Amino acid sequence: MANRLGPKPLAAKLAVGAVAVLGAWQINAAAATASNDDDAALPTVLPEIIVTAQKLSQNLEQVPVSVGTIDGALMQQSGATGFPDLQGYLGNVTLALSPTGGDFFIRGFGTLSTNAGFEPSVATVVDGIYYGRSNFLSVFFNDDQRMEVLRGPQGTLFGKNSTAGVFNLVTRAPDANTGMGGELLLGSDQRAVRPVFNIALGEHWAARIAGNFSRDDGLLHNTDLDRPEVDTSQNTIRGRLRYTQGPAQIDLGAFYSQQWLNANNFQLIKVTAPTEALMRDYDPQFEANLDFKNSANVPSRGETHFAGANATVDYTLDGLAGIDQWKLTSVTGWAKQTLESRDIDGDFSPVPVVRDTLIKPAPYKQFSQEVRVGGHDDSILDFGHGIDFVIGAYYFDSTFVSNDQYQLEDLGAALAFLTAAEAGNPDGNPVLRLGGVPLAQTAYGLGQLVDLLQPLIDPAIGSEQVARVSLDQETSTAALFGQMEYFVFEDWSVILGGRVGHEHKKGHFTSSHEGVFIPLVAGQEDFDSTINRSENEFSPKAGLKWQPRPNANVYLTWTRGYKSGGFNALPLNPDHLEFEPERATSLELGAKARLLQGSLRVSAALFDMRFSNLQVSTFEAGNGGGAAPVFLNAASARSRGGELEINWLAPLRGLAFYGSAGYADAYYTHYPDAPACAVPSECPNTNSDGTTQDLSGRTLSNAPRWTAAAVPSFTTLVPGGALATFAVDVLYRSGRYVDVDLAPEKYQPATTELNARVVLGSRQGNWMLSLAARNLTQEKIVDQVLDEPLAPGNYAASRSDRGRVFAANLIFDI
Predict the structure, then answer these.
(1) What letter does residue 100 receive in the DSSP assignment?
(2) What is the dihedral of CA 737, 738, 741, 742, to 10 degrees?
(3) pLDDT at 619 over 70
(4) Cα gap 601→599, rounded to integer Å
(5) 3-state secondary structure 724-754
(6) What span, in angstroms and rounded, lies between the C-alpha atoms of 85 and 772?
(7) d(Cα 317, Cα 249) in Å, to the nearest integer?
(8) Helices (H) then strands (E): counts for the chain
C-alpha cells in the first residue's frame, strides 16, 4: 500500500489563511493579564490546570496518573472540526469518531466499533456521566472547558470497560454573567454555527444553552451514485441549569442531537484484474485508488439521534464528623442513542452483491446512578499528614436492540462477482475455465443469463435471498469503590484503592433465512437462542507518591482493570455469539513538575501494561467464505513504553513551545490461532490449516510505536492593542497496521502532518479570529483496511484525512 499513500495534488477549494496550533493557555493567560502595559499583556507563568482525573479537583501536577489535557480554547482555535483532529497533540492516543461509532486506542489498546454489540476499552465520561457508546462524544464538540485523557487502566474510580484508559470531558458550566457568544466556522468543505447563551437568573440560578449546527460537503465522491459520501452533519442543542446557595450546588443538564451522513466510507484500493473488469461493467468510472472517490451501489445512509439528561448534586459537609473538607455527591444520568437508519454495502463495490440494512431503528438506552463522598482530612486519628479520599457506590443498566437484514441484492450479479473473485484469487487456480473460456471473461454474461432465467428458477431457490438476524441485550451493573492517598509522612503518601462489582447480561438472538444461497454464501444457520452471563470484577490499585512541593510529584502505581464480556450483534449462526472478559494489569512510574518560576511544565511516565484474554475485532469467515464482524479473545498482549509532555514559556516574551511524545511497543505475547489473512500466502505466519495464523510476538493493530507533536508559537501585540499569535505544529505518527490480521496491504506508513495558524484576538478575550491550515503536507491516512468479503486479494480502506484543508473561525463572547 505504500505506493498509494503519497502526496496528492493540491485541490483546496478555499484558502482563508495560514494557521497552526497554539496552546490555549497562551491566549487565555494573555487575556487574563492584559493591562495598559504592553509587556503585562504577555504571560510569563503557565496557568494552573485543575483536573478531575481522580473525581477530586486537583492541580495537574498532583495527580499520580499519566494525563494528557487540551483546553477548550485550543479546540476552537486549531481549526479542528471534531475530536479526532486533536489526537495528534497527545502521545499514545488514537481515535476516530462518527455518528454511528467511535474507535479509541491508548497505548495500543482499544476497541473497534465494527460490531454494534461492542463496549469500548476506553471509557467515555462527560461531566461525570459514563456513556456506554463512544459516539455520544460527538454531541459535545463545542463549548468545552477541557478534555482529559487518562492513560492506562482506570477501573478503581471509573469502573469496568476502562482497561485502556478514560476520555474525560468537562463542558462549560453556567456563570453569573448574562451574555452570548459562540463560533462561526467556515472551512474548505465544512461550515458550522455554534451559538452560546449564558443567562443569570437571579442570585442563585444561572443557565447556559449551546448549539452546534454543522454541515459537511463530504469526504468522498461516489461515482456510481453521483453523490458525496461521509458528509457528516448535525443539529445539536445542549442546556445546563445551575443552582448555588451555601453548601449546596445542583447542576442539571440535557441534550438532543440529530446527526446524519451518506455512509459509504470505504473505497476499494486494490482489486484483482477480473473483479476490476466486472466492476467497470457496472460503473465505467470505477478505479481502485486511495483518492477522494469511491464506487458503491447501495445508497447507504446513517442517521443517529441522541438524547440525554443528567443531574449532579453536591453538598459540602466540611467539619462534619471532624473531617476538615468533604463533600457528598450524587450523579444521575439517562441517555438514549437511536440508530434510525444504517445501510452497509457489504462488498464496497458498484456490483449489487451484498447489503446489510437495519430492518427498524436500533435503540441503545442507559441509566446510571453514582453516590460518593470525597474530600481531605489533615490526619487519621492524629497520625500522618493528610488524606485525600473518595468512597462511593455505582449502578448502571442498559438495553440494546438490533434487527438486521443481510441480503443478496441480485442473484446474477452475485454469481458474476463470485466467478470473477475466484478467477482473481491469488491463492486460487488462475487458469480455471468454463467451457474453455477463462472465468474472468464469462462472469458478466453468466450473471445476466442467471437474471434472465431467475423467474424460472425462483420456485426452486426462493425469490429472496435474505437472512434476518436480531440481538436483544440487557445489562445491569452494581459496584462499590474507594480510593485514598494517605500522606504517612509529610512528602510521602500511600495510594490504595479498589472496586468490586457484579454484572449480569442477557442476550436473545435470532437468525432466519429465505432462499437457498444465504446459508452457502454467509455460513448462515437458523436458530433462536437466549444466553445469560454473570461476572464479578475486582479492580485494585496500589502505589507510592513523593510530593516534595505542591507543584511536583513522583509516583509508582500498580493497577488492574476489567472489561466485561458480551455478545456479538450480527448472529448469522450460533458460533461466536459471545466473548469473554479481558483483564489488564499496569505498572507505571511517573513524574510531574512546574519549574523555572512556573514557566515550564514537564510530565513524564513509563509503563508496562499486560492484557489477558484480550478482546479483538475481526471478520469471522462463514462456511461459504462470507464474513461478519465479531469480537474474539486473543490469548495475551503487552505494551511497554512511555509519554513525555512539555509546556514552556521561553525567556523571549511571547515565545512558547508545546511538545509531546509517546512510545508504545504493543504486541501479542501469545496468539497462536489468530484469524488468517484472506490471502494466506501473503502472511508468513499462516498455520498449516490455512484458516489461522500465529501472531505471537507480532504487533497489535492500530498501535503506532511512536507518536510526537512539536508546537512552537509566538504571540505579540499588534497596532490597536490586539494580540496576534503565529504558530506551526508538526504531528508525527509512525507506521502501523490497521486490521488485526496484519496483511501487508493493511499497513499504514508513517505520517508527518504540518499545520499552521494565525490567531488575532482582543486582550479582553471577547473576540478572536483564527485562520488555520491543516495537513499542509497532504498526508494520506487510513484508519482501517478490510478484505473485500467473498473476494480474496481485494482490499477496501476507510480514509481519515481530508487532504489539505483551510478554516476560518470567529470566536466571540459579548
Answers:
(1) T
(2) -20
(3) no
(4) 7
(5) EEEEEEEEEECCEECCCCCCHHHEECCEEEE
(6) 13
(7) 12
(8) 7, 49
Q: Report the alpha-carbon distance of residue 641 to residue 704 in Å, rounded.
A: 12
Residue 473 C-alpha cell reads as: 441485550
What are the CA-CA distances from residue 384 to residues 61, 377, 379, 528, 730 (Å)? 22, 10, 5, 61, 47
Render pLDDT for 435-476 as a digit per residue (tens, 0 to 9).
444 445 555 565 666 666 667 676 767 678 899 999 999 999
Helix (H, G, I), strand (E, B) or coil at 574: coil
Q: Under DSSP, is residue 273 helix (H, G, I), strand (E, B) or coil?
A: helix
Q: Is the pLDDT score of 21 beyond 50?
A: no
- Average pLDDT value over all residues in the chain: 87
Q: Above 50 in pLDDT, residue 814?
A: yes
Q: How far apart are CA 401 and CA 233, in angstroms?
A: 25
What lies within 8 Å, CB to CB, of 377 at 6+ separation is 322, 323, 324, 325, 326, 386, 387, 389
Amino acid letter, 666: A
Give Dmax over CA atoms of the chain in angstroms. Answer: 95
What are the pLDDT digits (tens) for 29-81? Answer: 333 333 344 555 677 888 888 888 788 888 888 899 999 988 887 787 777 88
Which of 242, 279, 254 shows the shortest CA–CA distance to 129? 254
3-state secondary structure of 418: helix
Within 10 angstroms of residue 455's Cβ, the number of other Cβ atoms is 9
DSSP designation for 698: S
Q: Which domains does the chain have, with CATH numbers?
A: 2-410+464-813 (2.40.170.20)
> Kind and range of the H or E element at 438?
strand 437-438
Task: Assign 3-class secondary structure to 30-74.
Answer: HHHCCCCCCHHHCCCCCCCCEECCCCCCEEHHHCCCCEEEEEHHH
> What is the pLDDT, as a whole number, of residue 435?
42
For residues 385 and 505, give the distance between their C-alpha atoms in angstroms, rounded to a whole number.
Answer: 44
Give 576-601 pLDDT, tens digit per residue.
Answer: 888 899 999 999 999 999 999 999 99
- How does pLDDT run across 111-167, given as a tens digit for each residue? 887 777 778 889 999 999 999 998 899 999 999 999 999 999 999 999 888 999 999
Amino acid at the residue 74? L
478 with 369: CB under 8 angstroms? no
Output DSSP code: residue 19. Answer: B
CB atoms within 10 A of CB 399: 16
pTM of the model: 0.89
> Quick one: CA dihedral 112, 117, 121, 127, positive or negative?
positive
Q: Is 319 exposed, middle or buried (0-12, 13-18, 19+ CB in 10 A)?
A: exposed
Tell which residue, 89, 55, 64, has the closest CA to residue 75.
89
Q: Which residue has 508559537 as its cell numbers?
A: 713
Phi and psi of 457, rounded to 5°? -100, -10
- Give the Cα separation of 547 and 592 in Å (integer): 10
Burial zone of 240 (CB within 10 Å; 0-12 exposed, 13-18 middle, 19+ buried): buried
Q: How far apart are CA 747 and CA 739, in angstroms?
A: 8
Q: Where are the beta strands (DSSP E) in 161-224?
A: 165-171, 179-187, 190-201, 205-216, 220-222
* Pairwise CA distance, residues 554 & 547, whole Å: 7
Handedness of CA 373, 374, 379, 383 (dihedral sign): positive
Cβ atoms of 59 and 603 closer than 8 Å = no
Least confident of 292-306, 676-690, 703-717: 676-690
